[in-house]
Specification:
Pfam families: Clat_adaptor_s. 48% of the residues lie in helices and 21% in strands. The protein contains 7 helices and 7 strands. α3 runs antiparallel to α5 and α3 packs across α6. The longest helix is centred in the last third of the chain and has 20 residues.
């Protein structure tokens, strides 16, 4: 029913609510942005009371969450939703964010890549239907190139050399 990334104060950074044809009355009650923000604050308060758990039933929804530094990643489903599938979506989201941010998963870094985060959520689920469960494929679909930190210039140097070789060949052929 929703994918959320919240900060420590319960303010949304990324939020995507899904209301499909089979939507329950719970998510219909979250149609306005004001209702959604109130729900997010109550959810943060509930997760703060139970820091040892990562799944809970809240207002008729199954909520899986993962906390990291100053962020809270949440995936919400109906009460009859399979927790393993929701957990797979949560892990895929967190892993993709971790890959994009080069394991520096915190609010400031996430805000720098906010446009990419919205694309990640859109490519992860479409109207509540899971599209991808592999974080590396998800990052590739978004089109973000992650450079290996051990050799940050290797790809660009190779490309420059290939272009120079091609230009040299064309110059000789003329």
């Amino acid at each position: 029913r929703a994918i959320l990334i919240l900060d420590n104060d319960g303010r949304r950074i990324v939020a995507k609510y899904y209301t499909g044809a089979g939507s329950s009355t719970v998510t219909v009650g979250l149609a306005s942005a004001k209702d959604q923000r109130l729900f997010e604050r109550r959810l943060l308060a509930k997760t703060a009371k139970n820091p040892s758990t990562d799944v809970l039933m809240f207002e008729g929804l199954t909520c899986l969450f993962r906390s990291n530094v100053d962020l809270l990643f949440c995936v919400l489903g109906d009460s009859n939703e399979n927790e393993l599938i929701l957990n797979t979506v949560l892990c895929t989201l967190f892993d993709a964010v971790s890959i994009i941010l080069r394991k520096n998963v915190e609010k400031r870094a996430l805000l720098d890549y906010l446009d990419v985060m919205f694309l990640v959520v859109d490519e992860l689920c479409d109207n509540g239907i899971v599209l991808e469960t592999d974080a590396h494929h998800l990052v590739a679909r978004v089109g973000t190139r992650v450079i290996d930190e051990s050799s940050p210039m290797e790809g660009s140097v190779t490309q420059v050399l290939q272009q120079a070789t091609q230009q040299f060949k064309w110059a000789l052929l003329k």
